[in-house]
């Protein structure tokens, strides 16, 4: 099968595969010979008997998902540039300019009142089972690390214990729990817990409730995400919960109040309902009114998260964020998600990371050149390690101050939780047991955390949180090493010149210099025996 950008008709994400492994049509993804009598293992075949269920990645509730599409450009098409000369942000002294001295702290917000120890954030984990089941690890780990965490959409509407009166939320269990878990472990004022809202959340008054009842200062408006261009979805296996969500105004398929649907569900004809959120209708007038209303309600910081929409929508997002003085704008490119995004949609819609992030930089620079306010920018789209974080910060410098990550942190929290469970039942796999049999032996940060928090407090921390904290610690050290090699000892000194494009196409799209054109003027001075860089 010739190389294509996309895989079609068979994927681990939809639990499907082709009958033949190599003889496939590059156009359709079908086996070259589709045989009468095949049981239907491919996506077409499975769709013949499970229909719309095969639209979504499976098994729902225990996975995060990401596109298999190979884009023409990605962050691997850029290399980080180091230098042997000088230092920025520290004295150019070999005894002082060592990588542990790199400062990764970042301040943001209109008053610089939000402080993060590390330049990344989890930009929206909502009502999915994968988020709820790992929230302890995500919240406590993020708080201990001093980074940000965003409570995503539909958490209140999905809470069966939420009390709603006259269409407005007046009490909730899950949102309270999520906020408290973070705040209880927040240290020295670092980090922030952010509450996001979509159409349904706004109707329920979630932001106002979070501000007035739960003491939340930082709230977020949501236009979309990089995984899909429709509203959020989850699957519901309980009839009564599906009916509750239907009565709360969600789109639930099939209709859980229809007697025929109820009978079909009860006899096992299908096992899951789909709950869908509505799409928003953006206009500048409604956006301005909403921001004003939130500020009057007491919101201290306001952010906007937008997705991988077309360039005109990206321009609207940054223009609105600039005009109405938002504190943060998160731009999430195509390719991944933490919930139930339609699989083909996740692969085939939206602007990919390099293109979207490059356009964002271009629009931000245009505003800055005109003397306009530019909010702190956050890039999101499959970032998982320190080299990608460096590249994202550099590509968007000086406007990008944070990188948004979700799947990586969730994976770290899940692994930490799994190891903790294995320790409790004394069934550690050999791969892990070689490091020891206790969390103090297995988790490399346990010793420092125990010393800092004390024995009693340390023992209360779930291993999911230790897993996330340890993952963050690894990335922080790796990022410090990369920045030290580029002689940048604070984030404010990072520039686009810290990157080089490996191809002409990458250079054209991003505006980052092609490798062979890098330092041309300086090289000319040096080889002409003129003084080079200090």
TrEMBL record:
Q: Which GO terms describe its molecular function?
A: glutamate synthase activity
CDD domains found in the cross-reference section: GltS_FMN
> Pfam families this protein is in?
Glu_synthase (PF01645)
Which residues belong to any copy of the Glutamate synthase domain? Answer: 281-402
Residue span of the signal peptide, if any?
Answer: none
Task: Return the Gene3D superfamilies for the record.
Answer: Aldolase class I
GO BP, sorted A to Z: glutamate biosynthetic process
Task: Report the InterPro entries cross-referenced here.
Answer: Aldolase_TIM, Glu_synthdom
| Domain of life, per lineage | Bacteria
Q: Which family does it belong to?
A: Belongs to the glutamate synthase family.
For this entry, the protein name equals Putative glutamate synthase
């Amino acid at each position: 099968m010739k190389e294509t950008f996309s895989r079609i008709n068979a994927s681990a994400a939809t639990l499907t595969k082709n009958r033949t492994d190599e003889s496939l049509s590059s156009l359709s993804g079908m086996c070259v010979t589709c045989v009468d009598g095949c049981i239907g293992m491919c996506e077409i075949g499975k769709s013949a008997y499970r229909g719309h269920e095969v639209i979504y990645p499976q098994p729902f509730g225990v996975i995060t998902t990401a596109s298999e599409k190979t884009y023409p450009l990605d962050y691997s098409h850029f290399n980080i540039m180091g230098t042997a000369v000088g230092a920025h942000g520290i004295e150019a002294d070999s005894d002082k300019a060592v990588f542990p001295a790199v400062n990764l702290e970042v301040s943001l917000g209109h008053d610089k009142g939000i402080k993060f120890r590390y330049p990344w954030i989890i930009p929206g984990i909502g009502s999915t089972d994968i988020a709820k089941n790992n929230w302890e690890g995500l919240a406590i780990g993020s708080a201990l690390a001093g980074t940000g965490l965003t409570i995503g959409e539909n958490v209140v509407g999905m809470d069966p214990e939420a009390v709603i009166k006259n269409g407005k939320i007046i009490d909730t269990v899950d949102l309270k729990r999520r906020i408290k878990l973070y705040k209880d472990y927040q240290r020295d004022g670092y980090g922030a817990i952010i509450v996001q809202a979509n159409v349904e959340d706004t109707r329920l008054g979630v932001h106002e409730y979070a501000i007035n009842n739960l003491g939340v200062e930082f709230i977020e408006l949501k236009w979309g995400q990089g995984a899909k261009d429709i509203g959020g979805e989850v699957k519901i296996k309980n009839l009564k919960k599906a009916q509750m969500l239907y009565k709360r105004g969600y789109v639930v398929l099939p209709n859980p109040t229809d007697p025929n649907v109820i009978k079909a569900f009860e006899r096992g004809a299908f096992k899951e309902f789909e709950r869908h959120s509505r799409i928003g209708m953006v206009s500048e007038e409604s956006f301005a009114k909403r921001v004003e209303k939130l500020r009057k309600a007491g919101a201290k910081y306001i952010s906007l998260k937008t997705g991988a929409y077309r360039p005109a929508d990206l321009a609207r997002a940054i223009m609105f964020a600039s005009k109405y003085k938002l504190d943060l704008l998160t731009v999430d490119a195509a390719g991944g998600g933490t919930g139930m995004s339609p699989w083909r949609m996740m692969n085939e819609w939206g602007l990919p990371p390099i293109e979207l992030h490059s356009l964002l930089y271009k629009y931000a620079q245009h505003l800055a050149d005109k003397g306009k306010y530019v909010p702190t920018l956050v890039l999101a789209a499959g970032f998982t390690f320190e080299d990608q974080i460096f590249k994202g910060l550099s590509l968007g410098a000086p406007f990008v101050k944070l990188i948004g990550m979700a799947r990586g942190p969730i994976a770290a929290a899940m692994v930490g939780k799994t190891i903790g469970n294995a320790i409790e039942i004394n069934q550690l796999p050999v791969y892990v047991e070689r490091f020891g049999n206790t969390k103090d032996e297995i988790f490399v940060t346990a010793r420092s955390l125990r010393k800092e928090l004390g024995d009693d407090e340390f023992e209360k921390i779930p291993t999911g949180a230790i897993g996330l904290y340890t993952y963050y610690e690894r990335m922080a050290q790796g990022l410090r090493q990369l920045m030290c090699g580029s002689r940048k000892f604070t984030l404010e000194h990072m520039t686009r010149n810290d990157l080089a494009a490996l191809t002409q196409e990458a250079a054209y799209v991003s505006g980052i210099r092609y490798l062979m054109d890098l330092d041309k003027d300086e090289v000319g001075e040096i080889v002409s025996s003129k003084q080079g860089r200090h």
